[in-house]
Amino acid sequence: MSGFSNFRTVATNPAVQDLIEGMSLRMKHVSGVVLATRDGFAVADTLTASDPHSAAALFAALAGLTERIAMNIGPAPVDEVTIRTAAGTIAAYRVGQTHTLAVMAYPEVTLGLLHFHIRDLLKELAPLLETRKASATDEILSAELGSRIFPSPSRSVGGSLHV
Amino acid sequence: MPTYVTIKILVAGPFSAGKTTLISSLSEVPVVLTEVATQHTSEATVKSHTTVAMDFGSLTLHADDDTVVRLVLFGTPGQERFRFMLDVLDEGVDATIIVVDGTSSERWLEASEMIAGLRRPHIPLIVVVNRRRWGQSIDDVRVSMGLLPEQQIFAANLVDLDEARETIATVLDVLLEMDETALLLEPSVCS
Question: Which residue in A16, A67, A101, B132 has a CA-CA distance of 20 to 30 Å to A33?
C-alpha cells in the first residue's frame, strides 16, 4: 500500500497574497477578492465573511461554464465575466490558463475603473503564478498517509479509515 | 504548521440519484447549492428542486499532527441537458463517485454513458447504488449497466450519514491502494 502520495499540497504564496490584499485596500468600493485555480481551489483571498474555498469552487465553475457559452461565438478563452445586481458587482477575470481572479464590489464601483486597474494587476499576477507553479511541482508532497490516518472519535466511519 | 493535502472528488450520476444528498450529508461547511424548482412535469413529479450547475461541500480528515487532508466534493447536475458541467467540474479530479438510484433502472444506462464519457482510466471511479430495493442484487445492477467485473460497485443508503461516510471511506481505500505512480497529479497551490 503506497498511501496518499503526490497529491496536491496546500501552501500559501505570500507575494500573491500581498498583491491581492494591496489591490483590495487601494481600490475604492471593493469588498472582497478571491484568486482561484481553474479546478476550483482558493489560492489567495481577502474574504472575511464567507468561505474562500466555496467561492473558489463556484468561480472555477463559472469560468468553465462561460468558456463553453462563449464557444457559441467562436473558440477563444474568456477574458472576463461581469455580474451586476442591486447588491453590487462581481467581476471574474482570466489569469493566464490556470487561474481566475474574482473581485466583489459595492454598487458604487465604477466598472470601467475596476477593469482598468484589474488588467494592470493581472499583468503582475500572471508571472508570479507561473513561478509558483514550477516551485509547487518541486514541493510535491510524498506523504505516506495510509498508515498514519488515525481515529477521530467524533467522525468514525469504521474499518481502517476515519473521516 | 501542518501540511495540507487536498483531494477533489467528483460526484456524478443521473437525475435524482442522490448526489446532492451525499454532499449535504458529508460536508462540514455550508454546502453551495445551485438548486432551482423543477418545472417540466417529467421532473417535477419526481422532485421539487434540481441542481442546475454544481454542488460543493468539503470535509477534513484527521491525519496526524503534520498533515491535514481536505476532501472537496463537486456534484454535477444529473440531466443530459446539463452534461457539459461534467467536463467543467472534471478538471483536476482525483476520484469519481457515480451515484445511481436502485429504483430507477431506466436511468442506469445514462450512468453507463457518463462513465464511458469520462474516459480517464487512471482516475479511480466507484459506483454507489442508492435506495437499493429489497433483495436487489448489486451484480444485476452491474450487468444491467454493462460494468466490468472489476468495477467497484456497492449499495449505500445516502440519507444515512454512516453509509455516506462509508462511501467516502471506500473512495479513500481505493486511492490508498492505488500505485503511487498513477497518482502523479498536477499540484495546485491553495491557502
Answer: A67
Longest C-alpha distance within chain B, in Å? 53
A134 three-class SS: helix
- Cross-chain residue pair B189–A136, CB shorter than 8 Å: yes
Strand, helix or coil at B50? strand
For B72-99, write each residue's pLDDT tens digit: 999 999 999 899 999 999 999 999 999 9
Q: Could you give the CA distance from residue A68 to residue A49 in angstroms, rounded to a whole number?
A: 31
With residue A115 as reference, give the H or E element that holds it.
helix A111-138
Identify all chain B residues contacting A137, using CB atoms and an 8 Å cutoff.
Answer: 187
Residue written as grid cell 472555477: A60
25-44 in chain A: CB under 8 A from chain B: 37-44
Give the integer Cα–Cα distance in Å for B52 and B38. Answer: 10
In angstroms, the separation between the Cα of residue B28 and the nearest Cα of chain A is 11
Whether A61 and B89 lie within 8 Å, measured CB to CB: yes
DSSP state of B172: H
Cβ pair A93, A101 in contact under 8 A? yes
Contact B125, B96 (CB under 8 A): yes
Identify the bridge partners of residue A9 per DSSP, sorted by sequence position.
B5
Opening angle at CA A83, ends B187 and B91, nearest 5: 25
Cβ neighbourhood burial of B182 (10 Å; 0-12, 13-18, 19+): middle
Please name the residue of chain A whose CA is at the shortest distance from the CA of residue B83.
A65
Q: Which range (A101-115, B53-67, B177-191) has the least confidence?
A: B177-191
ipTM exceeding the 0.85 mark? no
Judged by CB atoms closer than 8 Å, whether chains meet at B191 and A141 is answered as no
The rounded distance, in Å, linking the Cα atoms of B134 and A105 is 54
Interval B67-75 mean pLDDT: 91
Would you say A89 and A111 are in contact if contact means Cβ atoms under 8 Å apart?
yes
CA atoms within a 13 Å half-sphere pointing along the CA-CB vector of B30? 6
- Contact criterion met (CB < 8 Å) for A6 and B91: no
Contact between chains at B173 and A139 (C-beta distance less than 8 A): no
